[in-house]
Specification:
By secondary structure, this protein is of the alpha/beta class. It folds into three domains: about 1-70, no CATH class; about 105-310, 3-Layer(aba) Sandwich (Rossmann fold); about 320-395, Winged helix-like DNA-binding domain superfamily/Winged helix DNA-binding domain (Arc Repressor Mutant, subunit A), CATH 1.10.10. The protein contains 17 helices and 13 strands. The strands form three sheets. It has a nine-stranded mixed sheet with strand order 1-2-6-5-4-3-7-8-9, sandwiched between helices. It has a two-stranded antiparallel ribbon with strand order 10-11. Strands 12-13 form a two-stranded antiparallel sheet. α8 (about 150-160) links the parallel β4 and β5. α1 (about 5-15) crosses α5 (about 60-70), α7 (about 125-140) runs parallel beside α8 and α10 (about 210-220) packs across α11. The longest helix is centred in the N-terminal third of the chain and has 16 residues, at about 125-140.
């Protein structure tokens, strides 16, 4: 048997996303050694059903699966393949075979961030996702998500439309049309150089229990995870928890409205361990800090490069800019200032405060009389529109 055949045979015996597979393989030096022990009845870890599958699974079934994948344009990347994503290999229970359409090799050449959220998001969440993923794409950062409707789809779409690289981790086999709404998006992801990934066999149907398991792959392919918004029962919380378990940072966009129950999960994350996200510089600053503390960060050179420069986002919808004069001790010069008539009253009020002088977050809260969470949301929206900038000393200024 070839190396791929060995791994596929183990997969058919143990079945995909079986958490016990990793424990079994840890007893042996190679996949071939494990397969021989299983075949010869020398592996005591197998249960009765698995022993039956050892007897039933023949080489011809494996070869038929390989032929099927080749016909469908699906590549099989095994755990010991050099193309297997290095970050994913480090998690506690990595898939032993990845079924892939498109190019997954970029994940070994560039940093990636997971972007997740609900299937029925708010307009605020969709807008933030669009601009954030636009900015990540502009910075050469890969975007990983779950190809579900809602925030996932918007994350992938924004990457595709802005020339970025994105990977969709499917909750079903690659040949299953689920969700049907994203069929064209999946084609676009592949056509633009991205990839679709699943640990399930090509025609495996979507399964609710599996969606939780696949979130470990979304987290595993990324250096950090961003939760756009989440209710108390959101699947995004599962991805966040798995990201934290893997020792990676979790970021959360401050809620647009803390009285809205659809943000209860976001509030809990920010209270417990998530870092508030005001811009992608927050992500790279945190990754750089962790690297300085001795933690292993994939593609650290790229992360440091991005943390030192501002990546200019290109939001599709932004406030109109009109020229005005900036008051300084130097000669007056024309600068761009956001037209407050294009902003919400709350956003305009913050802009007018910053027009006077740079202010810290606490000073903005004090002067505006608004709650901390409200100002966080307003500032984030303004940052993503390039209407305000945060300096290294923590103050906010007009660009």
């Amino acid at each position: 048997m070839t190396n791929v055949e060995v791994w596929l045979w183990i997969l058919l015996v143990m079945l995909p996303h079986n958490s016990r597979t990793t424990e079994l393989l840890s007893r042996y030096r190679t996949g071939l050694e494990a397969a021989i022990a299983m075949r010869d009845g020398k592996c005591e870890l197998l249960n009765a059903a698995e022993r039956q599958r050892v007897e039933r699974t023949r080489t011809r079934e494996v070869k038929a699966l390989i032929a099927q994948c080749e016909h469908l344009g699906i590549r099989m990347i095994t755990l010991d393949d050099p193309e297997y994503p290095s970050q994913l290999k480090r998690i506690d229970d990595p898939p032993i075979v990845l079924f892939v359409k498109g190019d997954i090799s970029q994940l070994n050449r560039m940093p990636a961030v997971a972007v997740v959220g609900p299937r029925v998001p708010s307009d605020y969440g969709m807008r933030i996702t669009d601009v954030l993923c636009n900015e990540l794409a502009a910075g050469g950062v890969g975007i990983v998500s779950g190809m579900a409707v809602g925030i996932d789809a918007q994350a992938h779409r924004s990457a595709v439309e802005n020339g970025g690289y994105t990977v969709g981790v499917m909750g079903c086999g690659l040949e299953v049309n689920y969700p049907a709404e994203n069929e064209q998006l999946k084609k676009d992801v592949i056509a633009k150089g991205g990839a679709l990934v699943s640990e399930l066999l090509p025609y495996s149907s979507a399964s609710v229990p599996y969606f939780r398991r696949r979130n470990r792959i979304i987290a595993g392919l990324s250096s950090a995870s961003v939760v756009i918004e989440a209710s108390a029962k959101s699947g995004a919380l599962v991805t966040a928890g798995m990201t934290r378990t893997q020792g990676k940072p979790v970021f959360c966009v401050p809620p647009h409205d803390i009285t809205d129950g659809s943000f209860n999960g976001s509030v809990s994350l920010l209270r417990e361990y998530a870092l508030p996200l005001f811009g992608i510089s927050d992500i790279f600053t945190e990754l750089s800090r962790r690297s300085a503390d001795g933690e292993h960060i994939v593609h650290m050179d790229k992360v440091k490069e991005l943390s030192k420069k501002s990546v200019a986002p290109k939001p599709k919808k932004s406030a109109k800019a009109v020229p005005m004069l900036e008051s300084t001790h130097e000669e007056p010069r024309a600068v761009e200032f956001v037209d407050v008539s294009e902003l919400s009253p709350e956003e305009a009020a913050v802009i007018l405060l910053l027009k006077e002088r740079p202010l810290t977050m606490d000073e903005i809260i004090e002067k505006s009389g608004k709650r901390h969470d409200e100002i966080c949301s307003i500032i984030l929206g303004l940052e993503l529109m390039d209407a305000v900038e945060r300096r290294q000393d923590g103050t906010f200024i007009l660009p």
